[in-house]
Amino acid sequence: MGKGRATWRDREFQIMALGMVQRTDEFAGTIPYTDDGIDIPFKVCDTTVTFDAALKAPNGSLIVVECKRWWKPVPQDAVFAFQKKIECLRQDTQNNVVGVLPVRRAYNIGALKLARRFNLVPMHAEHNQQANCSVVYYVEWNTELGKLSRRGQTNISADIQGRGTLTAANLRTNTEIP
User: Fold this and answer.
1) Which residues, including other chains, have CB under 8 Å from residue 50's CB and lie 6 or more apart?
2) Helix count (H) and strand count (E) of the chain?
3) Beta carbons of 48 and 82 less than 8 angstroms apart
4) Where are the alpha helices (DSSP H) in 101-142?
5) pLDDT tens per residue, range 110-143
6) Host H or E run for residue 90
7) Which residues contact 176 (CB under 8 A, 6 or more apart)?
8) What does the longest C-alpha to C-alpha distance in the chain come to?
9) Percentage of residues of the chain with pLDDT beyond 90
């Protein structure tokens, strides 16, 4: 994304993805980097790069989110571009940075292989899910089996009318997030 701010459906997807990332166990305790955490610019590599969303972890790490609300599968070029932005951010801030890449549709196989190599978190989050029950699942290219596999899923439910409670069950077990 450039210097502009997302609008309408794209912004809705960013807000939904940011909320889902925050509700998973591995990103518990994160807070928006600034303001609402959406469309956050950083000065890196002698230019300004805007991430769709950014969070701060309790240990000081940054979590940056690049949303792809595309109808087609996300290609490997998009993963390379996201990784380069993350690498510039790491170098210029001297901080640990975790990248999360929520998509609407799917990833192509090359994109998943790169996500695994770069330790990015590929996440599938359908737009227009019901407010009281959302499902996010994680996918990866399994090098041992030579095929796509689900690594687990997070089921998020919320009672937004009554008590305002939120429950999240994270079934993903094999990811290390600083």
Assistant:
1) 1, 2, 3, 4, 39, 40, 41, 42
2) 3, 9
3) no
4) 109-117
5) 888 888 888 888 877 665 554 344 455 556 667 7
6) helix 76-93
7) none
8) 49
9) 36
pLDDT digits (tens, 9 = 90+) for 69-83: 888 889 999 999 999
The encoded tokens of residue 116 equal 């695994």
User: Taking each helix axis from N to C terminus, what angle separates 76-93 and 109-117, rounded to the nearest 10 degrees?
Assistant: 20
Alpha-carbon gap, residue 105 to 109, rounded angstroms: 13
CA-CA distance, 142 to 136, in Å (whole number)? 19
pLDDT at 84 over 70: yes
* Amino acid in the structure at residue 120: L
Q: Give the DSSP letter of residue 167.
A: E
CA 65, 21, 164 angle in degrees (round to 5)? 140
Tokens in use for 175? 């990811």
Encoding tokens for residue 52?
A: 């769709």
The encoded tokens of residue 173 equal 């077990």
- What number of other Cβ atoms are within 10 A of residue 176's Cβ? 7
Cα dihedral 83→23→25→14 (10° resolution): -10
CB atoms within 10 A of CB 135: 15
